[in-house]
Every structure is written in structure tokens, then in C-alpha cells.
Amino acid sequence: MIRISMSLPKEVLTEFDEVLEKRGYNSRSKGIRDALKDYILRYQWMNEMEGERIGILAVIYDHGYTGVMEDLTDIQHDFREYISAVMHIHMTKKYCLEVITLKGNIKYIRDLTEKIMSLKGVEHAKLTTTDLKE
Ligand code: NI
Predict the structure, then answer these.
(1) Structural domains in the chain?
(2) pLDDT (0 to 100) of residue 41
(3) Which of 14, 23, 100, 103 meets the CB 3.0–4.6 Å disulfide criterion with 57?
(4) pLDDT digit string (tens) for 14-54?
(5) What is the mean pLDDT of the chain?
(6) Separation CA 96–CA 89 (nearest Å)
(7) Of 46, 120, 119, 107, which Cα lies nearest the Cα of 79?
(8) Ligand 1: centre distance to CA 50 (Å)
(9) Separation of 95 CA from ligand 1 center, angstroms?
């Protein structure tokens, strides 16, 4: 075992602790280990997919975060040939939800997802895909 220290927003830790309590965890370290494993598994699962797929990417972001809207727009323009439609919902005063429907080779869908997911100001990005049955 290796010990690490990290900093994160207080509200994230509060929410995380609440989830852990509801799930019956009595160790925060175990919760963090499980969350990290889940993150790794999800990435591996996403990387194992191949071929043409159709997908939905749901993105929640803070529209007040400097530059995030411009970055999201730039990325979507770069991937315009794989984007069928985009729906924007002004979710709360602070947050927007963007639902992007995608179609094409999973490598481009994945690439777009990774780029959006790693943007500062993006709180959450979740991709769901299915293969194109003929
Ligand atoms: Ni909005």
C-alpha cells in the first residue's frame, strides 16, 4: 500500500462521504479504492469497444466557468461529422445539460468523449453507446 494525499472541493468530499455512509462503508480509503477501480474499469470497457456505434453523451457543466462553452463548441465543431443532434437544457441557474447524439466509429466517439470529459468546468460526462444492428 502507498499513501497519497490529494486536494479536492469540500462539497465533493461531503457528497462522497454521504454515498459511502448510505452504502454502508465505514472506511473512506476503501471507498476511494473502489471508486478508482470503477473509474479504471469504465475506461477499459470504453477502450474495448470497436466499430460503428450510435451513442449519447450527456454532459453537465457550469456555464459560468471561463471558456468552457467556447471549448465545448470548438470540440463539437471538430467532430461535427459524428454528431447527429445536440440538445441543450438550462438545468439550474448554474448548470447546463447538453445531450449529444453521436454516430460513427467508436474511436471518434471515444475521442470526443475524452476531450469533453477532461475540460475544466465540466462536472460530469457520461457516454452510452450501442452497436449499429443492420
Ligand atoms: Ni444552458
Answers:
(1) 10-46 (1.10.1220), 51-131 (3.30.70.1150)
(2) 87
(3) 100
(4) 999 999 999 999 999 999 999 999 989 888 888 888 899 99
(5) 93
(6) 6
(7) 107
(8) 33
(9) 7
